[in-house]
Amino acid sequence: MSVSLRTMLAACLGGVGLVFTVGTAVLLNAEAGGRMQGIIGDQLHQYADQVADKLDRGMFERYRDLLVATSLDSVRSPGASRDSRRAVVQRLKDTYTDYAWIGFIEPNGILQVATDRVLEGMDVNARGWWKQGLERPYVGDVHDAIVLGKLLYTNRAEPPRFVDLAAPVHAEDGTLLGVIAAHLSWDWAMEVERSVLGQVDKARHVEAMILAGDDTVILGPKELIGQRIGAVSATVADSAAIRTWPDGVGYLTSTAATQGYRGYPGLAWKVVLREPATLALAPVREMRNRVIAWGAAASLLAVLVGYLLAGWISAPLRAMARAVREAGATGGRPALPATGHYAEIDTLSDAMRAYLDEIREGERRLKDSLGEKTILLHEIHHRVKNNLQVIYGLMMVEVRQLPKEERGRARMEAVARRITSMGRLHEQLYMSGDFARIDLGEHLLHLCEALSDLRPNEAVALRVEAAPATCSLELALPFGLIANELMTNSLKHAFPEGRGGTVTITLHDGPDALVMEVSDDGIGCAGGLPTGGIGTTLVNGLVRQIGGTLTFDTRQGCIARVSVPKARPAVPALPEAPAQTMAA
């Protein structure tokens, strides 16, 4: 299937544009996409660092509040009253509302005073934060407040979560006077998270989590609270990375660790921020899609430009082709148009004119030469036919000089018939005018007419059933001689003593082979084929020459079948010895 130059050039320009677009999109996805992912990841990591820093600073302030309270004279004086101590802890709670509860515990573990008088007089010796606070300032990790939560938050369905702080109170002489303890509401951490993530576009769906030292989620989505997710947050890096979470979704994940602040040692918390990768990298996809869209538009424009440009380039070529077709229809000299489109087309036009002139001159010389050779070949076949007729005539003159019972007379008559077969073939070529191909069926018909004189009596008939089959002279000549020998054999030996019958010759031009049969319904050859004749040697040699096979069927009369494949190998002209024998 041929493609026009216009279509080809348009497709090439469009294809180049498309390949450039796809390549640009791939490079952008690899290079710019990676950089943009890094920028987005850095931004997410900055938010995580801010949350971690605010947590450290906030805990430091609460830690410092307790240390300041332990240094107040109204608390550390051995003679301080309950009311003065209660006023301090109450004022501290009122100053920072995220304190859920603050109390002063005596060295014996009895709660002396507390904000809003909650649990005053209660024994807290079993509390871990109390024991830790006796020795040094203590900060405890987040935990659920079951008992105290019911007293402080009566309308809350879920138990509140507290961070415990405790610090010992010593008199000026170092005497231990008690412990100030506080429960900081975990809602404070939520406020820290919201204060930072409030800067982030809500469409990004960034989620924040705070993990305890053992990587247990202590703040975050409800479905993850209490779960350990160290596998996706264990690595603390300077930027974010895409990680697959337990739900099978990829998230751009950033982890920042709290470090403590000044005197506050910290609780080894980790801040984890995650954003669905599909949303985080949406700007990358949008940029890539825009590049593809603009590239596709540019490719379409290139196709249009290429189509128009190809039309301008191919216009003179089409004009030349049209002129050549018109000249071919009329047989005249094509009038190639002279164009000034570009130098190459003018050069092509001049070259085509010179080439066509050479072709026409060569064609004229070839026709003249062919005409001369045709006349010569026609004359050769005519002379060959005439010479064979002269030879036949001379032989018949000699034959008539011999007695009928003379054995040499029969042999000379057989040779004369073979010469006649060859002469008729040259006559057929001379009459047809086609010296390359000959109708073998027609040749066999003429051959039967020439052999009708050999019939032993009028009751013997010759019949030809030959389909049209054209072949070369090299095949027709041996085929005719083979048919002559086989038919002569049947006419001479199949019908003795005035017996009647039919000799039939058939020709079938099959897809794979050319098959000829010579059959008779005479006495057959049940006693064996006649031997010792020159005809048998000639037939077998000719069959080998044309690369065919010869078979006999003697069940009903005698049937000789010659089959020649369409693709036959070259073989010697005549063999040294016959394969089968039959009488001449």
Structural class: alpha+beta
The residue-averaged pLDDT reads 80
* Quaternary structure state of the chains depicted: single chain
Radius of gyration: 59 Å
Strand content: 15-25%
Q: How many angstroms does the end-to-end distance come to?
A: 61 Å
Per DSSP E runs of 2 or more residues, the count of β-strands stands at 17
Q: How many helix segments?
A: 14
Q: Name the shape in a single word.
A: elongated
The main sheet orders its strands as 2-1-5-4-3
Spans of at least 5 consecutive residues with low confidence: 570-584
The helical percent reads 40-55%
Biggest sheet architecture: 5 strands, antiparallel
Keywords for this entry:
584 residues; alpha+beta; five-stranded antiparallel sheet; 14 helices
Provide an overview of this structure.
The chain is built from 14 helices and 17 strands. Helix 1 runs antiparallel to helix 9 (282-330), helix 11 (407-432) packs antiparallel against helix 12 and helix 11 packs antiparallel against helix 13 (473-493). It is 51% helix and 18% strand. It has helices at residues 5-70, 73-76, 82-95, 128-135, 147-152, 187-197, 230-233, 277-280, 282-330, 343-400, 407-432, 440-451, 473-493, 534-545; strands at residues 99-105, 111-114, 138-144, 161-170, 176-185, 207-211, 217-219, 241-244, 250-257, 270-276, 438-439, 460-466, 470-471, 501-509, 513-520, 549-553, 558-565. It starts with a helix and ends in a 19-residue tail after the last strand. It has a five-stranded antiparallel β-sheet with strand order 2-1-5-4-3, with helices on both faces. The chain has a five-stranded antiparallel β-sheet with strand order 7-6-10-9-8. Strands 12-14-15-17-16 form a five-stranded mixed β-sheet, with helices on one face. The chain has 584 residues and is α+β, with helices and mostly antiparallel strands.
